[in-house]
Batch of 2 targets.
Target 1
Amino acid sequence: MSNKNQTLGEFIIENQASFKYTSGELSRLINSIRLAAKVVNHEVNKAGLVDIIGAAGDTNVQGEDQQKLDVYANDKFIQTLINRNIVCGIASEEEDDFIAINSQDENHQNKYVVLIDPLDGSSNIDVNVSVGTIFSVYRRVTPVGTPVQIEDFLQKGNQQVAAGYVIYGTSTMLVYTTGHGVNGFTLNPAIGSYYLSHPNMQFPEDGKIYSVNEGNYIHFPQGVKDYIKYCQEEEGDRPYTSRYIGSLVSDFHRNMIKGGIYMYPKSSKNSNGKLRLLYECNPMAFLAEQANGKACDGFTRILDIEPTELHQRVPFFCGSKNMVEKAEEFMKKAQ
Ligand code: P6P
């Protein structure tokens, strides 16, 4: 149950009982993400002042080292999660290997691992386009109290206990699920509180927006080319509108509100596509399915894919159910 304008804190307390398996740890985990997002939001929003505060790698007017924003975001989320002593391991797009936490202390009882893309689309910051943080949460599968292992991270997406994103756009929003639907919270930066602005978010079953980098068209598989031509032909409610921001979180968020499909297919340039399974596709697929949408690699449900390595890439089709199913139809027909 949720009512509009409830704060994120009130929402978490009210829905605590529905977080199965947790004694408040998952709530504290979401709270730590909400705090880190506020800190990163502040830094992202002043990135435009780079001439005053110094570009990445320089020192700013206070003589402080100016970090690249994705490195900054990575450090902030990792430190916030470690300081609150909630998780036993973290994997990040910015870290080659996973980070084991408290591995020397067999008394720690932390049972969650977090996988994160700290600042997806960060190349857009220099041109003032929205960017986002994406996170995915699992319960560990190795014994509590022992050092976390790679198998704690290489779990299928259907094992996630929570997933979400922060979108640093015209307003900053935290959108997440714990398996009981998707809710969106908008930050009021004046007082630092998030308010439930988008309760129970749902993908429209159908849509008229397709998001893909058409510059790669000649490199796409035939099924993708056929689907793009289908979107463009004059028939019924088509041609659709092409909208591609170059920021997954932004395209996903718009499509969830208005209806649409986002595609990052494999191509002759990227044999498995570009997006990472564990900390981009799985969390977005969990959100999509919780919001009555769908997510696949063109043939297989994303959440059923067996991961083999931390930074593996997969082709990604995600959004309104009927649109994803139509794209799958073209992929299978062209096979
Ligand atoms: P391209 C950003 O780098 C990202 O991971 C997604 O956020 C975005 O949708 C995609 O890559 C853009 O990639 O190759 O179209 O520039």
Note: The chain has a mean pLDDT of 90.
Target 2
Amino acid sequence: MKFFIDTADLNEIAEAKSWGCLAGVTTNPSLYARTGGKLADFEPHMLKIAELCCGLPVSAESTATTAEGMIEEGRRLAALAPNIVVKLPVCEAGLAACRALADEGVRINMTLVFSAPQALLAANAGARYISPFVGRFDDIAEDGISQLADVVACIGNYDWTGKNVDDQVEIITASVRTPNHVTQAALLGADIATVPFGALKKCLKHPLTDAGLASFEADWKKVVEQA
Ligand code: G3P
């Protein structure tokens, strides 16, 4: 399973990228708003992320509300850089825009997916990536991981050749909050987990790793002092 980072913060992306294990970035309007960015800076900011990511896929979300608006904005976003993936919501307008843009060779990440039927509709509309949300189910005391399991199984049952620009559909586990979400997503065979920077750091941390490092350092200091 690949790791994407779920953020629009350039410093977080740069730091996560420096670890050497980052495979992409996803953003959304809320994440952009959190950077304090202005409306006029949205597209230049997406371009900066795309350039920072040197070819890795970067999802930039359309905020249009009609199919025509999403197609127009999607074309503009996709033209910013070859690694921009246009993110669209799974709704009537989103599906129509997905089909039109996919037919033009634009990669689409279909977002706000909360069920297997939504995921199947998105894949049939030409989505290259499908983003089922996990954490928001947990927020309402439902089981996000079992919903993800349905999506992974249903999409995995079929061959998507000819449906979209790359002849394949990848599942991006989204709305990830914890390292356990990451483990469960990988156990299910999800292709990607998009993880906020804070949760990504938690994935790396383990108290036994910290304790092991401290004891190795202390023992090595003794060796050096005796030399
Ligand atoms: O980018 C979409 C998704 O990952 C948002 O997550 O935490 O706002 O539910 P969250």
Note: The pocket of SN-glycerol-3-phosphate is lined by residues 6, 26, 28, 133, 135-136, 174-175, 194 (CB under 6 Å).
